[in-house]
Amino acid sequence: MKKLGKWLWVHLTTVDHKRIGAMYVVTAAIMLLFGGVEAFLIRLQLFHPDNRLVVGDSFNQLVTMHGTTMIFFAIMPLFVGFANVIMPLQIGARDVAFPFLNAFSYWLYLAGCILLQTALITGDMPNDGWFAYPPLSLKTYNPGFGMDYYAMSIQISGLGTFITGINFVVTILNMRAPGMTLRRMPLFTWAVFIMSTVIIFAFPPLTADVFLLIFDRLMGMNFFNVAQGGNVLIWQHLFWIFGHPEVYILILPAFGIISEVVTTFSRKNLFGYDSMILALVAIAFISFTVWSHHLFTAGMGPIVNSIFATTTMLIAIPTGVKIFNWIGTLWGGKIRTTSAMLYALGFIPIFVVGGITGVMVAMAPADYQYNMSYFVVAHFHYVMIGGSLFSLLAALYYWFPKIWGRLLDERLGRLSFALMFVGFNATFFPQHWLGLFGMARRVFTYPPDWGLTFWNQFSTIGLIVMTLGLLVVMYDIIITMVRGQRAPADPWDGRTLEWATSSPPPLYNFPALPPVTSRDAWWVMKRQGIPLPEPERDIHLPAPTLWPFLLALGMTVVAYGVIYPVTWLAWGGVFWTLYALYRSLFDRVPPLVLHPEVRA
Question: Which of 114, 316, 401, 519 to pair with 54, CA 20 to 30 A apart?
């Protein structure tokens, strides 16, 4: 019990980027499990026509919870978790720029998870899709608390994501090791930097949009009430100004992960490093110019539709550049087919399919057929699940020894890849045909005489195979943590600085900041026999503190008080939040002073 209390206290008070990153990964993996179970129930309902497993509003709630959980609380936080651990190590820093805010961001994310899952516990879940279009999300049509939980969970966790974006940008710009110029940064760090920049510009429109929804639902205002002069298109434009850059918030770090894995296991420099960075920057910029392709059928007119069709197809150019970069890196390389490499190689064709269908739905006239059909479901999942999940599993097998100090079983990793690759394509590729055959999305059944039964059953069986692959990954993690092989500092003969320190790294990361003289800093140091610098005598680090947790707790209490509404609870949360903010701003906590005795 004493050990449990100590463990809990350490995690409640930590400001160490590595521990916070691991907490993100574990929490997001649990949310991924929730979202996966919801997806499984959706496919079981659609296994045959006129099934009665989950019908009507219950199906709407299931679809909404699945989409919201996966996008906001599983995939994006998984990337944030890996970035939290790896990015400071790659640039030779001892922590992020604002450790207090880093911890605060995690607790806000956890608060958002709890708020959304409270709706699952109470049975009053949001039911208007993950994009929550008015007027269906207004009190008139949604009198329960489900959409309030949706709005508050996104608002609170979104604040944490916005703070994280600022934190990462400042860290990368100001805390790089001596000699690490921007053109010497690893591709994963570049991807995190660009992702964070997109977050800073994309999340404010979402925040404003959700505030308007909260005002309409809880304060009787009429921003989206057409009968009182409101306009539902305000929601759609603001949401997708965030929503399409959000796709690239979820896929940009995936590009960085694939670049790191491919270069390491090809034993080559990345082909076209500069063009890869320019492609990432171009994708980030163009992503803010394509949002209205989600509104092709909303009646904007042919001129507007043509403009956004053009920008949407234009983004395929820098996306295609990366594919050539990876193929050029693989060409002539000494390829090692580790589990991480297999997932990276599997990512490439899956993302190509998602990109090709993206160009198809970018054609405004054709989108009138694709819109609201399962073709869009297939496209979306090839990009978001195929792209994101395969890159995340590559990151897991690549960086697991660095984060947790143990090597995952490569045989189980290869088995999981085979099941995942076959199961994923069996699940989602037939959904292109289902959409073209006329099957609508977010509908809980279909006519038995439309010829849709076989491919729905094929898709469900594919999901079962994909689930088996994820279960193999879970089993691999469990047995590795119990009795897995201890990992050396550099098990893959890596190229970047995270492999220059122990696995897992010490609290201070590096006994002395490593000098950087070239792009693949650690690779060059090993090959040229450049020793690590002597340890510094004293290393100063920020001390643990409970105030980030208590500050997030106060904001969570405010959210519950506003949702129900309970005036005394809301005001109590406000006063507690202000008190915690005051204490955290004016407490003077002496830093930790560490004395490393040996090199890491």
Answer: 114
Taking only Cα atoms into account, the Rg of the chain, rounded to an integer number of angstroms, comes to 24
| Phi-psi domain of 435 (left: phi exceeds 0; alpha: psi -120 through 50; beta: other) | alpha
- Dist CA 213 CA 135 (whole Å): 10
pLDDT in tens, the chain (600 residues): 778 889 999 999 999 999 999 999 999 999 999 999 999 999 999 999 999 999 999 999 999 999 999 999 999 999 999 999 999 999 999 999 999 999 999 999 999 999 999 999 998 999 999 999 999 999 999 999 999 999 999 999 999 999 999 999 999 999 999 999 999 999 999 999 999 999 999 999 999 999 999 999 999 899 999 989 999 999 999 999 999 999 999 999 999 999 999 999 999 999 999 999 999 999 999 999 999 999 998 888 999 999 999 999 999 999 999 999 999 999 999 999 999 999 999 999 999 999 999 999 999 999 989 989 999 999 999 998 888 999 999 999 999 999 999 999 999 999 999 999 999 999 999 999 999 999 999 999 999 988 899 999 999 999 999 999 999 999 999 999 999 899 999 999 999 999 999 999 999 999 888 889 889 999 999 988 888 888 887 888 889 999 999 999 999 999 999 999 999 999 999 999 999 999 988 877 777 878 776 443
Say if CB 417 and CB 397 are below 8 A apart: no
State which residues form the domain around 42.
2-594
Is residue 599 domain-resident? no
Token reading at 235:
């929601």
DSSP H or E segment with residue 294: none
Domain count, the chain: 1
Closest Cα to residue 551, out of 78, 101, 250, 33? 101
For 121-150, b/e burial (b = at least 16 CB within 10 A) is: eeebbbbbbbbbebbebbeeebeebbbbbb
3-class secondary structure for 448-473? CCCCCHHHHHHHHHHHHHHHHHHHHH
Q: Is residue 237 part of a domain?
A: yes
Whether residue 15 is contained in a domain is answered as yes
3-state per-residue secondary structure call for 494-517: CCCHHHHCCCCCCCCCCCCCCCCC
Give yes or no for a contact between 124 and 146, defined as CB atoms under 8 angstroms apart.
Answer: yes
Closest CA to 287 of 325, 324, 236, 250: 250
558 close to 156: Cβ distance less than 8 angstroms: no
The single-letter DSSP state of residue 223 is S
Report the CATH number that the domain containing residue 469 is assigned in CATH: 1.20.210.10
Q: Per the domain annotation, does 600 fall within a domain?
A: no
